[in-house]
């Protein structure tokens, strides 16, 4: 979903949007925080899910979208992991609904502001007229996960962190048309689907190629951004984030269940990648033909791992 908070206090006709696929504690908390500055009269929840059972309180207006609704018949390429890869699709879904605003802030729900007064942060941008704002904007490093997708784009590969951005609304149409043009090559199977650029590479590279004014959010804010990262290993819970005092922006901050799920997923990934451990266990089990013994081995492997974790 995207939570959009209507502007009442800001001077440059901006709107705040939370990019999400559900309505939970993080969405509600971020909405309440942002609405202190933007106001709640024009607040929307925009959700990319097909789930009709999402319970959204009546005070939140909402826009539901997915590949068959709002963005249907747009000729966009729908990569299997587009909700994660293509955060810019939220901007396209919002474009026609937010035609009264000059700027749109798009924010993921796992962004946490330690300062409780939203005005202290957003007032710093009231006179910033950049076309696009993002954390970490700059030349894309070859070690980036999506760097190879820049090969299908024109211009110097650029990147940014897409978790928290602001764009001049009129540019969304230009970027959408570029996405559709690029999508055609993928729909025609000219490229492998995994070469489809993610939001960070696509927005930063395309806007830079078109000579638009792109700036880093951190260059215009006095807030401390050292805890704002794309590194999932640096994620913290809401409880831990609340203990940090001062003008900090933290990312990612997760609900307990999400934190747990992502850590287990990360552990499984590390185990699968660690050939010195997982490959050895796999070979041992393959060479053990006795099913009873193999079952006992699995139990003992788990016990050994549990004992190791307990000693940490």
Q: Strand fraction band? A: 15-25%
Query: What's the number of helices?
Result: 10
* CATH architectural designation of the largest domain: Alpha-Beta Complex
The number of E-state strands comes to 12
Catalogue the unreliable spans: 3-8
Q: What is the topology, as strand order, of the major beta sheet? A: 4-3-1-2-5-8-7-9
What's the pLDDT, averaged over the residues?
A: 88
Distance between the termini: 38 Å
- Evaluate the radius of gyration: 22 Å
In terms of structural class, how would the helical and strand content be classed?
Answer: alpha/beta
Q: How many domains in all?
A: 2
Instruction: Output the CATH topology of the largest domain.
Output: Spore Coat Polysaccharide Biosynthesis Protein SpsA, Chain A
Report the order of strands and helices.
Answer: EEHEEHHEEHEEHHEEHEEHHH
The helix content is 25-40%
Structural summary, described in words:
The chain is α/β, with parallel strands linked by helices. The chain folds into two domains: 2-255, Spore Coat Polysaccharide Biosynthesis Protein SpsA, Chain A (Alpha-Beta Complex), CATH 3.90.550; 274-310. Helix content is 37%, strand content 17%. The protein is built from ten helices and twelve strands. The chain has an eight-stranded mixed β-sheet, with helices on both faces. A two-stranded antiparallel ribbon has the order 6-11. Strands 10-12 form a two-stranded parallel sheet. The radius of gyration is 22 Å and the shape is globular.
């Amino acid at each position: 979903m995207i939570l959009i908070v209507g502007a009442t206090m800001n001077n440059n006709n901006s709107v705040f949007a939370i990019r999400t696929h559900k309505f939970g504690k993080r969405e509600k908390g971020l909405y309440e925080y942002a609405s202190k500055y933007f106001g709640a009269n024009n607040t929307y929840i925009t959700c990319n899910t097909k789930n009709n059972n999402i319970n959204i309180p009546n005070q939140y207006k909402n826009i539901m979208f997915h590949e068959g609704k709002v963005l249907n018949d747009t000729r966009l390429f729908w990569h299997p992991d587009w909700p994660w890869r293509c955060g810019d699709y939220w901007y396209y879904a919002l474009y026609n609904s937010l035609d009264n605003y000059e700027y749109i802030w798009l924010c993921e729900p796992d962004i946490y502001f330690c300062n409780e007064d939203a005005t202290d942060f957003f007032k710093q941008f009231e006179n910033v007229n950049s076309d696009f704002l993002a954390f970490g904007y700059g030349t894309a490093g070859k070690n980036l996960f999506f760097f190879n997708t820049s090969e299908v784009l024109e211009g110097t590969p650029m990147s940014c962190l897409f978790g928290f951005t602001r764009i001049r609304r009129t540019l969304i149409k230009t970027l959408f048309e570029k996405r559709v043009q690029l999508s055609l090559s993928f729909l025609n199977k000219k490229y492998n689907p995994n070469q489809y650029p993610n939001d960070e590479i696509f927005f930063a590279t395309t806007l830079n190629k078109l000579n638009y004014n792109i700036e880093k959010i951190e260059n215009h804010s006095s807030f401390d951004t050292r805890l704002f990262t794309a590194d999932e290993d640096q994620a913290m819970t809401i409880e831990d984030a609340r203990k940090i005092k001062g003008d900090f922006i933290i990312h990612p901050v997760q609900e307990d269940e999400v934190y747990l799920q992502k850590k287990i997923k990360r552990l499984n990934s590390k185990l699968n990648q660690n050939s010195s451990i997982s490959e050895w266990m796999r070979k041992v089990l393959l060479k053990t033909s006795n099913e009873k013994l193999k079952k006992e081995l699995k139990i003992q492997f788990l016990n050994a791992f549990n004992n190791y974790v307990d000693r940490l």
